[in-house]
């Protein structure tokens, strides 16, 4: 049985240990240089967000509104009245309440 030569009959080149050591040293120095650059480079700028005072107040109002107690019986009565058509809106009273609320919100009197 014949054994095929993997190198196609070409002689193996001897390993030059000096060259291998030099390549390893070059790689190490490159790694050290990149590590030093990473350490001395300034940290990337962080983005930030700030809310205006109005937005902060709105957030507080929303939080208070979600924590407010709900009179579920009254809500159910109003839903039922609206669905049956029995709920009537007085436009003058509604307009006065809206005007009052706006004056409280925007502090105009």
TrEMBL record:
Transmembrane stretches in the record are none
Task: Locate the compositionally biased regions of type Low complexity.
Answer: 21-44
Start-end of Polar residues biased regions: 1-10, 47-63
Q: Where is the Anti-sigma-28 factor FlgM C-terminal domain?
A: 47-99
Q: Which InterPro entries match?
A: Anti-sigma-28_factor_FlgM_sf (IPR035890), FlgM (IPR007412), FlgM_C (IPR031316)
Q: Which SUPFAM superfamilies match?
A: Anti-sigma factor FlgM
Region Disordered, annotated ranges: 1-75
- Name the Pfam families for this protein: FlgM
Per UniProt, the keywords (alphabetical) are: Bacterial flagellum biogenesis, Cell projection, Cilium, Flagellum, Repressor, Transcription, Transcription regulation
Question: Does Transcription count among this protein's keywords?
Answer: yes
Similarity comment: family membership: Belongs to the FlgM family.
NCBIfam families registered for this protein in UniProt: FlgM_jcvi (TIGR03824)
| Its job | Responsible for the coupling of flagellin expression to flagellar assembly by preventing expression of the flagellin genes when a component of the middle class of proteins is defective. It negatively regulates flagellar genes by inhibiting the activity of FliA by directly binding to FliA.
The name this protein carries in UniProt is: Negative regulator of flagellin synthesis
């Amino acid at each position: 049985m014949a054994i095929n030569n993997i190198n196609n009959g070409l002689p193996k080149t001897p390993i030059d240990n000096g060259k291998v050591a030099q390549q390893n040293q070059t790689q190490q120095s490159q790694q050290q240089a990149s590590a030093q650059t990473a350490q001395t480079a300034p940290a990337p700028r962080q983005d930030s967000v700030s809310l205006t005072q109005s937005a902060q107040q709105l957030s507080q109002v929303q939080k208070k509104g979600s924590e407010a107690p709900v009179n579920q019986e009254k809500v159910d009565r109003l839903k039922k009245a609206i669905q049956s058509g029995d709920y009537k809106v007085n436009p003058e009273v509604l307009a006065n309440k809206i005007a009052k609320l706006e004056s409280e919100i925007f502090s105009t009197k």
